[in-house]
Every structure is written in C-alpha cells, then in structure tokens.
Design a protein that fits this description.
By secondary structure, the protein is α+β, with helices and mostly antiparallel strands. The protein contains 11 helices and 13 strands. About 40% of the residues lie in helices and about 20% in strands. The structure holds alpha-D-galactopyranose.
C-alpha cells in the first residue's frame, strides 16, 4: 500500500507528494486510566501506525484524504477557519492539530495536502487517532520549521483530541506515538511528564495483541464520564487532605482515608480505588521488568484487568471473555485489556515458543464463548514518529 501512495497522491491532488512521514499507534502494557489522574503508564509504540505523504502549500488551504476513509472523499478546510465543532468527520484530528499549532507559530497561510494511510484497526484501543494527530503535528513542524520538540507536538496533539474530538483524554497515547523507542517500554509519570525508557529485553517472552472485534460504542461519553467520576472522588478526598491528583495517594493511604469518609456516588470511590491501585501496579510492573521477573509482570496484568472489570467497569463481555481465554491458553503469563476499553484489544505476555499454540487455543475458546474469531496482531516495541523520506 505504501508503494502506491505517490501515484495516488498525484491522482488526488494533481501534484507530487514531497515527503513521507509515519507515526505509530501504541499498546499500553499497564497503567490504564492513570494518565488522567497524574499517575504512571507503561506503553510501547507499535510498528503499526499511520503514514502520511504530504506536500506543503502556502495558500493556507488544508486538504486531507485518507485511504482508510475513502468514502469521505477529500476534506478541505483553511488554516484561518479552524474551530472546534466543524463537521469534518475523521479530519477533525488533523484539523485540530493545525489549530493547536497555529498557537505555536504556524502561519495563517501555512497549508498542506496530506494523503493518509493507516494499518491500525480503528476503535480497537491501539491509538489510531493519536497516530493521525502526531503524524500531522510532525509534518507541520517539519514543513514550517516550527522548531517544536516531540513533547510539544504530543501536547498539541492531545489538545486537539480534547478540544476538537471532544475526548477528555490524557497524554499517554500521543506521548507514546511521538516518543516511542525500539525495544523499549516508556515508564511515563503523567503528573510531571518525567519518563524513563525500560528495555523489554527478553528473547523468551513476547507480547501478543488479540482483537475482540467488538468496536467501542459511545466511548467518548463513557470515557468522559469516568474522568468526571475520578474528579468527584478527588474533590471528596481533598476535603481530608491537600492533594493535586488521585495518584498522589498510595493504596493504604486511600483506604485509611475511607475509614471516615464517604465518597458519593459509590462508583466514584471504586473508580478511585482502581486508579490508585493501578498506579502502584504500574510501578511494580516496571520493577518486575527490570528484574526480568515475567511471572510477576503477568500477575500484575491479570490484576489490572480484574480491577478494570470490577472497579473501573470499562471491559464488557467480549474483553472479559478474550482475556480469560488467553489466560488459560498455553504459554500465557498474564493478559489484560489495553486502551480505553469498552471493546478493542487484549494484550498478553506469552512464552515465544508457545505463541502459535497460544493463538490457536485462545481463538477457539473465545469463539466458543462469543461466536467471533479474534484477530492477532504483532506487538514489537518500535520507534516514535518522524520523517521516513523526502521524495
Ligand atoms: C485512551 C486515552 C488515554 C488513556 C487511556 C486509558 O487511550 O486516550 O489518555 O486515558 O484511554 O488508559
């Protein structure tokens, strides 16, 4: 598909593409829904993501076309006309990024033609939208010499998602897409954005992503609702202790505060329990990775899923069935949903030599339970976004 982009570009835009860029999706190993509460996450960038063949234009026009949304045709807007709420379909992501970069130096006559192609399944929890955003940010930064670093580009991309796509997401996805490194997981503290790369160095075990094929529905509203519940819990806890984020508390401190505090509604207390416990699990998982203790890492993955299912309530029957099927298949050390949930993918830690048997058994059990056959995707920690070549 990538080879056909230059020809396709000429057909669509009547001119040549100038440079090819790429931004990856991500798989989050552990640390789910902690980014919006100042906690830690442990994602890796993937080899799969979004490619963009682009050409600069100096008339302030933005023209976007995606081979993944070909039915939507060419979407056109202007850099000076950008505003949240415009009906641009999938192009709210690149348009939102251009708007946020306007505030960071993009001139009003700065325009673009971009042909996008992604090899990530959309709505599957692997951050296809963050990859489109970060890709667009990297292109504009390059073409217009904005001089922004990858972290600034990730922050601009997150703002685009918050304000244009209406998802009150944290920084994890855009950060991982921008700053991923081959063979490494990123331990990111979302409270202060400090981060360390943690090598995923094992020839013996690998990651397998399995897709429930259930697509998220109404994810934005449920996501925003979870975020509001976490904020309600934080407000209640603040009446007892000065706190900036839920993740300023450790699980013991949280439970002791609950001895004489009632958090209302009761769901908010359970959401906070997940977030605070998950933050601790993420730090423990990073330590287990350093020690090469994959049995412990796997145990933490299982505990994370359990908490996401019962306290945070973002899994659902398909994700639960697939994680369960994976856990009882040969060679599996642990398995959990990854991303925002409500459908999408499960990530498992599996002995490499057992991967074919693992996939066969997992698929058979999941199909028996749900009548659907899952898809499996390779999961190798890969590099972050950048320019691939100038044409
Ligand atoms: C989505 C959001 C992230 C994060 C995850 C859940 O991917 O974009 O910011 O909150 O959900 O961990």
């Amino acid at each position: 598909m990538i080879q056909t982009l230059p020809e396709e570009f000429i057909r669509l835009f009547g001119r040549r593409g100038e440079a090819l860029f790429f931004a990856p999706g991500r798989v989050n190993l552990i640390g789910e829904y902690t980014d919006i509460s100042g906690g830690h996450v442990l994602p890796c960038a993937l080899a799969q993501g979004t490619y963009g063949l682009a050409a600069r234009r100096d008339d302030g026009r933005l023209r976007f076309y995606s081979l993944n949304f070909a039915a939507d045709g060419l979407i056109e807007t202007r850099t000076v006309d950008l505003a949240p709420g415009r009906a641009l379909g999938w192009a709210v992501y690149p348009a939102g990024v251009a708007d946020r970069l306007r505030r960071r130096g993009l001139p009003g006559d700065g325009g673009l033609d971009v042909l996008y192609y992604g090899d990530l399944p959309p709505g599957a929890g692997l951050s296809s939208s963050a990859s489109i955003e970060v890709l667009t940010a990297v292109i504009l930064n390059d073409f217009y010499d904005l001089g922004l670093g990858l972290l600034d580009l990730a922050l601009a991309a997150q703002e685009a998602e918050n304000e244009f796509a209406g998802l009150a997401c944290g920084i994890m996805d855009q950060f991982a897409s921008a700053l991923g490194r081959p063979g490494q997981a990123i331990l990111l503290n979302c409270g202060d954005l400090s981060h360390q790369y943690r090598p995923f160095r094992s020839g013996e075990v690998g990651l397998v992503i399995a897709d429930t094929l259930k697509r998220r529905a109404l994810a934005e509203s449920k996501y925003n609702q979870r975020r509001a519940e976490c904020e309600a819990a934080l407000a209640a806890l603040k009446t007892r202790r000065p706190l900036s984020n839920l993740c300023d508390l450790d699980p013991d401190e949280f439970e002791s505060l609950l001895e004489d505090l009632v958090i209302a509604p009761p769901e908010a207390g359970r959401r906070a329990r997940h977030v605070i416990g998950e933050n601790r699990r993420t730090l423990s998982a990073a330590e287990a990775l350093d020690r090469g203790d994959f049995a412990e890492f796997g145990r933490l993955l299982n505990a994370s899923h359990h908490s996401l299912a019962h306290d945070f309530e973002v899994t659902g029957p398909e994700l639960d069935a697939l994680a369960e099927a994976a856990r009882s298949a040969p060679g599996c050390l642990g398995s959990r949903m990854t991303g925002a949930g409500f459908g999408g993918c499960v990530v498992s830690l599996v002995y490499r030599e057992a991967i074919p048997d693992f996939q066969r058994e997992t698929a058979a059990r999941y199909e028996q339970q749900t009548g659907r056959r899952p898809l499996f995707y390779p999961a190798e920690a890969s590099a972050g976004a950048g320019k691939l070549e100038t044409l």
